[in-house]
Design goal:
It contains 19 helices and 18 strands. It is an alpha/beta fold and about 550 residues long. It folds into four domains: about 150 residues, Rossmann fold; about 100 residues, no CATH class; about 160 residues, P-loop containing nucleotide triphosphate hydrolases (Rossmann fold, 3-Layer(aba) Sandwich), CATH 3.40.50; about 45 residues, no CATH class.
């Protein structure tokens, strides 16, 4: 058990949260949510002991071990991959290191030998002889193949390091597991494996994530950082979100009787419990919901931006087609090749690849930002397109001294300041915030600016490369709705499983040896064994460049 008592954190006059009293118990997974800057990651750092609270304390049950997903991707660069994973269990790793040092010392004394024998006993009790095989199995499940296990961490890519550090946190089944954005940089299959692993996990999991599908898959409880408080609710993210929306609606309707409100809530809980039947945690969730005190439910203070992509004209029958497109990276290796397909009317295409660089390169090519090596592509005459790149820095370079009104005005046909300010207001830049300099914008604020720019262009064809990066859950939800309701054509990629699954009606996977092109949902695509074999064959037949 992990207990939080009278916890508070304050920076000067700014209170992040206070009077926090929570109990985290074995067998449950707690999803920590809140607006950007509310203190989600800071709360995890207090739990892990990385930073101190202003008041209050946390208590871990004696004998319990805590593991934390490390955020410093360079901390283990001088160690091999397998050792890095085993370091997740510090006591075990220290024993292993000490006894091996004694064995490797030709001048070891008799006392040293006795010490090594004692260490061997403890090592065996901790199941240490299975450490390397257990670590290797975790790595394999996360997509780090065996020939990489002896490599130094510094030779891995950023995405591969994330997977190794995740394996490190999971290693040895810690009693308390703290994960801050664990699905970042994970491909869909790996994220799905992690979801299933955590759904079956028998100890305490506390996770911060912007991935709604992931939170729904693993969470038995939601821990909401809001109102300068931290409150715990039974159920997963969707239950929290829908109940919060219902409470907001009921509070706005002041004439509705209390009994009617309560009946609506009970009906909602009943329907939600029934719909959870396919989830691994369905039974425990239903029991938790049955014990729920309705008076504990509160509407959220968080706001949702208004995102609406409205095409100026309807696309014609000729939309987009590409023929035999290919591109190599700077290292000369093929990113993609033999890419040929055409858009149908109404298509919303999700592009995926096991190489994220290949997807970005493909989008840059079809947006005219990068020249393909071979092949061609063309848009129909009725098509007006807009591109939201993964890296938006060039749109803000040289504009550091511009305020948001001036920055957005350059992309608008309507130059009136009141129009621009109104537009920014709908994107949650209100009051004096519209005079912020672009040099001080956060990553999420820049993405909201780029979404504003895209909306002003009224395109009928959108190219979106990871549009949810840096966005909070509220903005992601608003964007999801806008993409679903968009009447034009759309080609995109995202790490947000829900967006991929609810928006796309067609999945195209690009590889160095061609494409897999299927008219189906993302969920159907990922879980289809026949398609998986086809995908593996396309990647497996790759010859060294």
């Amino acid at each position: 058990m992990l207990t939080v008592s009278n916890l508070a954190l304050q920076y000067g006059k700014r209170i992040l949260f206070e009077d926090v009293n929570l109990k985290f118990t074995k067998g449950n997974c707690y999803g920590v949510i809140g607006a950007n800057g509310a203190g989600k990651s800071t709360f995890l750092k207090i739990l892990s002991g990385e930073i101190d609270s202003t008041r209050g304390h946390t208590t871990i049950e004696p004998g319990n071990r805590m593991a934390v997903l490390k955020q410093n991707h360079f901390a283990f660069d001088e160690f091999d991959v397998l050792s890095t994973v085993i370091m997740g269990h510090k006591e075990l790793y220290d024993i292993m290191t000490e006894k091996n040092a004694i064995y490797d010392n030709p001048d070891a004394s008799e006392d040293d030998a006795m010490r090594a024998a004692d260490l061997e006993g403890v090592f065996a009790e901790m199941n240490g002889w299975m450490a390397e095989s257990d670590a290797g199995e975790l790595l394999g499940n996360l997509g780090i193949v065996e020939n990489m296990h002896s490599m130094q961490m510094k030779s891995l890519t950023g995405g591969q390091k994330v997977k190794v550090l995740l394996a490190q946190a999971l290693f040895g089944n810690p009693d308390i597991l703290l994960l801050d954005e664990p699905t970042n940089d994970l491909d869909a299959e790996t994220a799905n494996w992690l979801s299933n692993f955590l759904a079956d996990y028998e100890n305490i999991v506390i996770v911060v994530s912007h991935d709604r599908h992931f939170l729904d898959m693993v969470c038995t409880h939601i821990v909401d950082v809001d109102f300068q408080k931290i409150r715990m609710y039974s159920g997963n993210y969707t239950f929290w979100y829908e109940s919060s929306q219902l409470m907001s609606k009921q509070m706005a309707d002041k004439n509705k009787k209390t009994e009617t409100k309560r009946a609506e809530l009970m009906d909602f809980i009943s329907r939600f419990s029934a719909n959870a039947s396919k989830a691994k945690q369905a039974t425990s969730r239903k029991k938790a919901l049955e014990k729920l005190n309705l008076d504990e439910l509160r509407p959220s203070t968080r706001k949702y931006p208004f995102i609406n992509f409205k095409p100026e004209r309807e696309p014609g029958n000729e939309i987009f087609k590409c023929t035999n497109l290919a591109k190599r990276g700077l290292d000369g290796k093929l990113l993609f090749a033999k890419i040929s397909f055409a858009f149908n009317k109404g298509d919303k295409v999700a592009i995926i690849s096991r190489n994220a660089t290949a997807v970005t390169a493909f989008f840059n090519v079809i947006a005219g930002e990068l020249k393909q090596d071979t092949g061609s592509f063309e848009y129909g005459q009725t098509i007006t397109r807009a591109y939201m790149p993964n890296d938006n820095s060039k749109f803000f370079q040289g504009a550091q001294d511009q305020d948001l009104v001036s920055w957005l005005r350059q992309f608008s046909k309507e130059k009136d300041e009141s129009f621009i300010r109104g537009f920014l207001g709908r994107m949650l830049f209100s009051g004096e915030e519209v005079f912020k300099k672009s040099s001080v914008l956060s990553g999420g604020e820049k993405v909201r600016c780029m979404l504003s720019k895209t909306m002003l262009g009224s395109p009928n064809f959108l190219i979106l490369d990871e549009p949810t990066n840096h966005l909070d859950l509220e903005s992601i939800t608003a964007l999801n709705n806008a993409m679903t309701e968009f009447k034009g054509n759309l080609i995109f990629t995202s790490h947000d499983y829900t967006i991929m699954n609810t928006v796309a009606n067609r999945i195209i996977e690009i590889t160095p040896n061609g494409i897999v092109d299927q008219l189906m949902t993302f969920d159907e695509y990922i879980k289809n064994e026949r398609i998986k074999q086809l995908r593996d064959a396309l990647y497996g037949s790759l010859k060294p460049a």
